[in-house]
Amino acid sequence: MYRTTDTSDIRSNLLFGTVVEPSGQGESVPVTKTALLRVDRPFDLKEHASSVLFCGTKVIQTRYYNNEPVKALVLRTGYNTSKGQLVRSILYPVPADFKFDRDSYKFIIILACIATIGLAYTVALKTGTLTEDGLDMWGVVAVSGASKPPRLGRPQRDPRQLNELHPLKLGMATCHSLTLLDDELAGDPLDLKSTGWVLEEPDIPEHSNYEILTPTIVKPRKTANIDVDDIHLPLEVGIVQQHQFVSSLQRASVVTRVLGEDVLRVYTKGAPEMLRTLCIPETVPDNLYEVLNSYAEKGYRVIAVATRVLEGTTF
């Protein structure tokens, strides 16, 4: 009897003697392997497993009889062994062709087709809703100034019916990014058209626009007048400064001045959730989310407008 630490990379069949394997194949205790007792039948790996040394097994003890050394016959080497087949299956996986896999691919293809049709329908609907020439405003919902705390009142289908000096109407008429190019409005004229106001720019060289305080003016299409310090003046609102819409801020703002007034007014337009965080809590309608959700659930595009007076500003 002797002890060896030889580790073999082959699978062999024990012909003579007895060996003891440690728990290298998952057994909890060392396993004894004996020589084949019958060689008159074809060799079967499962039937003669008690006489097989597996690749990677460490032999810790051997016994031999009649002065005959322990001998074994190599059956498989390299990738032909169980360990080699495992490594080979990892390196070169065999394509699986199961019926379940084929049905899964068919199911995924069907879902992809349905998703593509839904996406195409959604894009067409979105494009037709937001960019077609016939796009119009459904209406506005103004804050009722008589209620305490403030609440959103009844919807007004035609914004032109609002008072010309209503803060919501002034915000819609001024808070936009419209400009005149060759006497044609460039941009989305929805808000301005819905108020019945027009936009004018001074007829001066382009490089001189920033030398005057109000290079852009909006005013009602029909002449309207206001009284300022007992002086009868036409209603005109100059856009002093513009801050374009920024997606990360979810809002756009303008600084304006009504002709004859000595204060500046800021109008901000954007996502209702964002504007709510910027407003004084006491001025936010207590039914804001209730009204907002009712229109959002119907698929309407909802935009909020807020305002603030900058007092103490000198010109």
UniProtKB/TrEMBL annotation:
Cellular-component GO terms for this entry: membrane
Transmembrane domains' residue ranges: 107-125
GO biological process, one term: intracellular calcium ion homeostasis
Entries under InterPro entries matching the protein: ATPase_P-typ_cyto_dom_N, ATPase_P-typ_transduc_dom_A_sf, P-type_TPase_V
Location within or outside the cell: Membrane
MF (Gene Ontology): ATP binding; ATPase-coupled monoatomic cation transmembrane transporter activity; metal ion binding; P-type transmembrane transporter activity; polyamine transmembrane transporter activity
Superkingdom of this protein's organism: Eukaryota
Entry membrane topology: Multi-pass membrane protein
The reaction(s) this protein catalyses: ATP + H2O = ADP + phosphate + H(+)
Keywords per UniProt: ATP-binding, Magnesium, Membrane, Metal-binding, Nucleotide-binding, Phosphoprotein, Translocase, Transmembrane, Transmembrane helix
Protein name: Uncharacterized protein
